[in-house]
Design a protein that fits this description.
about 25% strand; four-stranded antiparallel beta sheet; 10 helices; about 400 residues; eight-stranded mixed beta sheet; elongated; alpha/beta
Length: about 400
């Protein structure tokens, strides 16, 4: 796919990005300083709305999907509606970055870069509002709460965020620690995994730790279940099928000389297709119950449904790749060779309208590697913002031509 972005337009966008960048960076630092957890983003949403209301040409709606903020920009010529999305919530992580703008809320921080996502979307609105004469159609800027497990995207979809006007395509991005700063990675089809939480309670007969033969050892049984679950990948599921089963909590007992009557295990299941999810869930239940029964105990398994897989649309992904090749420096764009097992509620938008989600690098090349997502030392790299802004702004401006083909 080939786009025809004129040199004049590229220079104009570049100039406008440079003008707004200091304010965009300042906004990111401010939101990083005052993070809010899932479904508690009242101050964040208010700050976003206040900034959007200062931008000429935008109509701003608050309270969409409870705490979401949506702004609409209409171009001077008719055309499709492009939606751009950013998430707003933070994580229950204690920050150790030592930055001057580090979190003021103890035990809460933007460890997943949503402050950078918000700043990028705000900057895109600022730039595009100045380029209305070049815009055909409308741009809907979606600031979404509760991505971190709260399914805020689904709530906003159910509240009609993709309607009035109806969205023709939606794009989103995520800062990525494993990619050099400014590089962008795309993937058509499955990009991120479906998520499920599982709980396994092992029930048996507790006894004195010095007399283990008089009961059943729930700690030992639970350990065998943990080990057994690792056979799901590449043994029960095909070696070529992506699946991750990780036990992340193991609780049981209250003292040193008593074998407890129960042990509780909690973990996450990640798969790429509904069929794989069902097969893996069946395997978890069968293994846990079988191992417990073989050792004279009982296992009770429950599942919590999480996000569906994030599946990018071919046409939208190809369009984004063309944008990147046109407006970013040579060598900036690449294709992700395989999906990642992380989860993302952008999946709910992609179930309803065409679109694509992509990664933008934040790694600054430091020794030892950039802190990973959800790490207490993670901080979105401001150096990625100019590249992210180019991708969002040019995607909104160029989509009308692609839509007509």
């Amino acid at each position: 796919m080939k786009l025809n972005v004129s040199a004049d337009l590229r220079q104009l966008v570049e100039r406008e990005i440079k003008q707004v960048l200091p304010e965009v960076v300042a906004f990111r630092h401010e939101r990083h300083r005052y993070p809010e957890l899932t479904w508690k983003e009242q101050a964040t949403a208010a700050a976003v709305a206040a900034k959007l209301k200062q931008i000429p040409g935008l109509t701003v709606q608050e309270g969409v999907g409870k705490l979401g903020v949506v702004a609409l920009l209409t171009g001077e010529k008719p055309g499709p509606t492009v939606a751009l999305r950013a998430d707003m919530d933070a994580l229950p992580v204690k920050e150790v970055t030592g930055k001057s703008y580090a979190s003021c809320h103890d035990g809460v921080m933007h460890a997943c870069g949503h402050d950078g996502h918000m700043a990028n979307l705000l900057g895109s609105a600022m730039v595009l509002s100045k380029l209305r004469s070049h815009l055909r159609g409308q741009v809907k800027f979606i600031f979404q709460p509760a991505e971190e497990g709260g399914a805020g995207a689904k709530v906003m979809c159910d509240d009609g965020v993709l309607e009035t006007p109806k969205v023709d395509v939606i794009f989103g991005l995520h800062g990525w620690s494993e990619v050099p700063c400014g590089k962008v990675y795309f993937r058509s089809g499955p990009l991120m995994a479906a998520t499920n939480v599982f709980h396994i309670e092992v029930k048996g007969t507790g006894c004195h730790a010095a007399l283990p033969h008089l009961g059943t050892d729930q700690i030992l049984i639970g350990s065998r279940i943990v080990e057994g679950l690792q056979s799901i990948s590449a043994r029960i599921m095909a070696p070529t099928e992506p699946v991750a089963v990780s036990v992340t909590q193991f609780n049981g007992g209250s003292t040193n000389n008593v074998i407890p009557p129960y042990a509780k295990l909690t973990g996450t299941l990640r798969t790429m297709t509904p069929k794989a999810r069902e097969r893996a869930m069946t395997a978890i239940e069968r293994l846990a119950k079988g191992i417990a029964a073989a050792n004279g105990a009982e296992a009770v398994i429950t599942f919590e449904e999480g996000y569906p897989p994030t599946v990018n649309h071919d046409g939208a992904t190809g369009f984004l790749e063309a944008v990147a090749h046109e407006v970013l420096p040579n060598g900036s764009a690449d294709r992700l060779p395989h999906p990642t097992m992380g989860g993302e509620d952008f999946a709910y938008y992609l179930e309803r309208v065409p679109g694509s989600f992509f990664f933008i690098g934040v790694d600054d090349g430091r020794e030892g590697g950039y802190p990973s997502l959800h790490h207490p030392a993670y901080d979105f790299n401001d150096g990625a913002l100019p590249h992210a802004l180019k991708m969002f702004v040019h995607s909104a401006l160029a989509y009308a031509d692609h839509h007509q083909k």
